[in-house]
Amino acid sequence: MSLADLKDWATWQEIHAQPAIWRAWAGALDVQDLKGWVAAQDVSEVWFCGAGTSAYIGDIICAGLEGQSGPALRAVATTDLVSRPKAYLAGKRPLVVSFGRSGNSTESIGTLDALDALAPDAPRLNITCNKNGALATRASSGPQKVVLLPDACHDQGFAMTSSFSTMLLSALAVFDRSVQGAAPFAPLADALQDTLPRFAADLPALPARVVFVGAGPLAYAAREAALKVMELSAGAIPALWDSTLGFRHGPKSFVTDDTLICVFVSSDTDVARYDLDLVAELRTQFPKARVLTIGAGADVPVDGAQGDTWSAPLMITFAQVAGVVWSVALGLNVDDPFIGRGTLSRVVAGVKLYPVAS
Predict the structure, then answer these.
(1) What is the domain range of residue 210?
(2) Residues 128 and 261 reside in one and the same domain
């Protein structure tokens, strides 16, 4: 398969646009203003909320920033919050950070409804890619900030790619106390620019099934990677994710001789010991399966100089590229793998919202 077969797909273009988007956004994102606004809210908890890929942003952030000082960080999927709003919000005043590519998914709107009814004074920080969506346009009775990402992040393909990575990096710039603003954006952009050609070159042939594993924030990067493969293959390639140590506790039963196992190797040498022990074990136990390491000094080298949390988008881009290549190999419409089925859509629809009593 040549690159010419891929360049016409919007999803492929959006994957490869990420380095340029990150570089430009680093200069446009007013990190200091946002940090000051967050501090002024004087909250004890920050909740990162979204559905699907947007929920995994919060998982990566909370795992990666575990233990830092300041408000407690919590990932709360909107798919959980909307169905049980009183269990989460009654008597609470968290800072709610909402992620949404369209900002119009049913659960995004349901979360705003729940906040209006149960926690109207809770501050809201909405990070979204669509200037016309509810997250960008809907007013709040309490304190609110909107971070509107560049139009280029409003992916036209079914799969979230640049929208996911740029929302994640934007939130990290605001909430990671160990870095200065958007300083990591440029080196990450350079690293991805250098690595993208390798991803396609090092990609294994179409597998029957795929596993992604990693530790800490890279476990949740593995979750997003698995989702990208399943979405872009329209479910034709079953994909599993787990943590490095958790994989042995039952999920390893998923592995067959024709499974591709991708291990995201941590840039922290202490953590990486566990990753590499698992790699050695799997290669011994499943000699016919393909075990592929991804990370610093790995089979597929990825620059981990910015640390695992910030480098998560680089790891996930491998799965984005793989998903597109395998989608084409399966003869699917990359930008809408479920076309004609009516089962999944780019913006989730068909969820009925029920009123929230205040």
Answers:
(1) 195-329
(2) no
